């Protein structure tokens, strides 16, 4: 009789990647509460103890998944950024990349920002934030130096921009057909409002 998956010996070409892929799939389809290292091990065809070689517990798995999200978001923002562009189209491109990532990975984005993380992961999480939100902060600081936007603490301005983008991402996450988050005109209008405000002109 074939042994059950739980009794199989550890043998997997890239178990860590397989566990992360399975975790993200579960997160997307069932939510964070459904994540289980034992279940992920069963899906990967390894013993229930095998994931312990990579993740000491479920929280460590969640932290690794969040960090992979920061890596992918950073790559998306880096690819979208063009320092040669004027400020408004440059911010529009970054906003479009952020909202596109949010539309495709809503549950992962929530895990990245809203979930408590292990203190041992705090420094890595801070690095992830710096590589994503920090890019927008640098764009803001550069624009201030050129006199394109108001003076003030660039961190506060960056938080305001990030709050607007993340808020819009949250509003649209549950309705992917409401493509405001990824429609060019909608994003351009949003960035225009951010730069010029609501005051009559």
What class, by secondary structure content? mainly alpha
The succession of helices and strands, N to C, reads: HHHHHHHH
Distance between the termini: 78 Å
Number of helical stretches of at least 4 residues: 8
3D shape: elongated
Strand content: under 5%
Structural commentary:
There is one protein chain. This protein has helices at residues 15-30, 37-44, 58-80, 87-104, 106-114, 122-145, 154-173, 184-196. It is mainly alpha-helical and 201 residues long. The chain is elongated and about 65 Å long. Residues 1-12 have low confidence and may be disordered.
Reconstruct the topology from this structure.
Layout: H1 15-30, H2 37-44, H3 58-80, H4 87-104, H5 106-114, H6 122-145, H7 154-173, H8 184-196
Helix pairs in contact: 1-2, 1-3, 3-4, 3-5, 3-6, 4-5, 4-7, 4-8, 6-7
What's the gist of this structure?
This protein is mainly alpha-helical.
Features:
single chain, 201 residues, mainly alpha, 65% helix, 0% strand, elongated, disordered N terminus
